[in-house]
Design goal:
Elements: H1 12-26, H2 38-62, H3 72-78, E1 92-98, E2 107-109, E3 114-117, E4 122-125, E5 129-131, E6 137-144, E7 158-160, E8 170-172, H4 186-194, H5 196-201, H6 205-213, E9 218-224, E10 236-243, H7 246-256, E11 262-267, E12 269-281, H8 287-302, E13 310-311, H9 312-316, E14 325-335, E15 346-347, E16 353-375, E17 378-385, E18 393-407, E19 415-430, E20 433-436, E21 453-459, E22 471-473
Parallel strand pairs: 10-11, 12-16
Antiparallel strand pairs: 1-6, 1-8, 2-5, 3-4, 3-7, 4-6, 9-10, 12-14, 13-15, 16-17, 17-20, 18-19, 18-21, 21-22
Helix pairs in contact: 1-2, 6-7
């Protein structure tokens, strides 16, 4: 058989051609290579198996390199440096069990009592408690049943008791549940392994950073000195971190810092970002577009570093790269730190804060259609979302294309096009915008009735939005 070359550089068609040529060279009498022939079928089968073999060999070869390995293969590679993947962590917090009317009897709530949110995520109490006699409620610690960031939920979202304890009427979490962390991703594990040797050298900022990252349950670390922040005194470094045990972090820093350098620890506060993106669909919109956009936003938020600001405009821009989406009309986002106010263009966290997505309360809502309501010569415009509700915008401009038809006075059932226009309407802290039609917008003569003009409206730049219902306006004579 002819030489098929390096196995990692062979494609399917090349294998087929090589095998065919080999057969021709060795057995010239076998010359029927047409589709469906015995020889052609055998060649294709063998080529397919060889292709799978070459791909398997290629994968096995690449798994030995830290930049190529992933999953369990990466864990085997970094194990050579005595590094292990950080395991997922359960979210923790507290809930309050309450009864409507206090009585002289106490109410017992056993450890392991389950409560859930509206999405069905399960949380369990970690200790046995009692609602004391003549008291309305009691607070108890809970943790997510499943580890991972899905257990991080906002305040007042845990409200369901699958099996309510006898005498208990309600449950809620007054504060968010936090601390849930997914299994360490390949990218972070790979980065830790690459800096393992630097860490062992001690005394550098990166050495301290990766020594702290190696502490179990630590999610993020930032190490700064005066060269990075003028407010830090000479001879001092600030170690800002999230997750992990403070004593273990302090021990890692003490073993790594240079002699004479004072290291101040600052615990990072996790701030959850929630809200909704109101997207304008394209004609090819499918649910995949919604899922892809949400995934892109979550990934971008999860990549933010400690103290790094959030750009809403950058998140909105993901819509341009996703088939089925035209753009984001407006994003209504808020933080768990300031739940009453909306984030405008940019959100600046404190230096000791880490922004993360509140996956349970981060939605992508599709704008569905236009709604028009006439009043005299004006038309009130509303944008209706997929739930059939009008959307209130802080500031949004929409270009509308209007086509005008006027009936003849003598034959009202016959209408003639008398004008068309493209005009922008503004939504300003309202769910309504107004389009005004004037006599200058139409070409009327004495044969037309100006008090019964039909208007057809659609969004000029967004064919994915359904047209508005046709309306009739009355122009002043």
């Amino acid at each position: 058989m002819t030489d098929l070359g390096h196995p990692f550089a062979r494609d399917y068609e090349t294998l087929i051609n090589s095998l065919k040529q080999s057969i021709k060279d060795r057995a010239p009498e076998l010359n029927d290579f047409n589709e469906g022939s015995v020889i052609s079928t055998l060649v294709h089968v063998l080529s397919r198996e060889l292709k799978f073999l070459y791909e398997a060999m290629d994968q096995a070869y690449r798994r030995a390199f830290i930049d190529e390995a992933s999953g369990p293969a990466l864990e085997y590679v970094v194990a050579l440096l005595d590094i292990r993947r950080n395991e997922p962590v359960k979210a923790t917090g507290a809930v309050t069990f309450a009864r409507k009317t206090p009585t002289s009897n106490s109410v017992a709530i056993k450890a392991g009592t389950r409560v859930t949110d509206t999405r069905g995520r399960i949380f369990e109490t970690t200790a046995r408690v009692e609602i004391p006699a003549n008291q309305p409620d009691v607070k108890v610690a809970v943790q997510a049943k499943a580890p991972g960031s899905e257990g991080n939920v906002a305040a007042n979202t845990i409200t369901i008791m699958p099996t309510p304890p006898i005498g208990v009427n309600t449950v809620t979490n007054g504060l968010p549940l936090t601390g849930g962390k997914d299994e360490e991703p390949d990218e972070q594990l790979r980065e830790r392994a690459k800096h393992a040797l630097e860490t062992s050298g001690r005394a550098t900022l990166n050495a301290i950073k990766f020594a702290v990252l190696d502490v179990d349950k630590v999610e993020g670390v930032e190490v700064a000195d005066r060269s990075m922040d003028d407010s830090i005194p000479l001879g001092e470094v600030r170690v800002r971190f999230s997750g992990g045990d403070v004593d273990k972090v302090r021990e890692a820093v003490e073993q790594t810092r240079a002699a004479g350098i004072f290291a101040r620890l600052e615990t990072i506060t996790e701030v959850l970002i929630s809200g909704a993106f109101y997207v304008i669909p394209d004609k090819s919109f499918t649910e995949i577009a919604r899922t892809d956009f949400n995934a892109a936003v979550v990934a971008a938020l999860e990549k933010l570093k400690i103290g790094e600001p959030l750009s809403v405009r950058r998140l909105n821009a993901f819509a341009y790269d996703i088939p089925g989406l035209a753009e984001v009309a407006e994003a209504k986002l808020k933080s768990s730190k300031e739940p009453s106010g909306e984030i405008q263009e940019t959100y600046f966290p404190a230096r000791t804060e880490l922004l993360r997505p509140d996956k349970a309360h981060l939605a992508v809502r599709r704008l569905d259609k236009l709604k028009a309501t006439p009043q005299g010569s004006q038309i009130t415009i509303e944008l209706i979302d997929e739930t059939s509700a009008p959307v209130t915008f802080n500031q949004f401009s929409l270009a509308l294309s209007a086509t005008l038809y006027a009936p003849f006075k003598t034959t009202p059932e016959v209408k003639e096009r008398v004008g068309s226009l493209i005009r922008a309407v503004e939504f300003k802290k309202s769910d309504k915008a107004v389009l005004t039609i004037t006599k200058q917008d139409v070409e009327l003569d004495d044969e037309h009735d100006p008090t019964n003009i039909e208007v057809s409206l659609h969004a000029a730049a967004y064919p994915g939005l359904a047209e508005a219902n046709k309306v009739t306006i009355n122009l002043p004579v």
